[in-house]
Design goal:
45% strand
Length: 101
């Protein structure tokens, strides 16, 4: 569950699955299966894309980075995952810099 909720970015809000996947640089792929409301959803993540495949059940509406998608058994959906933009390293607050040894 840590990988699914963390790197897969899966949340369930208002009865809808929401994904915001972000893989770390050292991971090339992550795949998992989720059972949700009598459906079986396969999620495959790569550094630049996410593929949602419904293995069984009626069509499922979900969100990928805030965009609504509908996945059915005969039509898997692939969406891109934007790369993370590096942030500057945090600095110590004034007067809190550790003493040099």
């Amino acid at each position: 569950m840590a990988l699914v909720a963390g790197f897969g970015g899966m949340r369930c809000a208002d009865g809808t699955l929401r994904f915001a996947p972000r893989l770390p640089e050292r991971f090339s792929r992550l795949a998992f299966t989720v059972g949700f409301l009598d459906r079986c959803l396969r999620v495959e993540l790569a550094a630049d894309r996410a593929t949602y495949t419904l293995s069984s059940g009626p069509p499922l509406t979900l969100h990928h980075h805030g965009i609504e998608l509908t996945v059915s058994e005969d039509a898997p959906v692939t969406r891109t995952v934007a790369p993370l933009t590096p942030c500057p390293a945090p600095s110590q607050p004034p007067h809190r810099v550790p003493n040099a040894r």
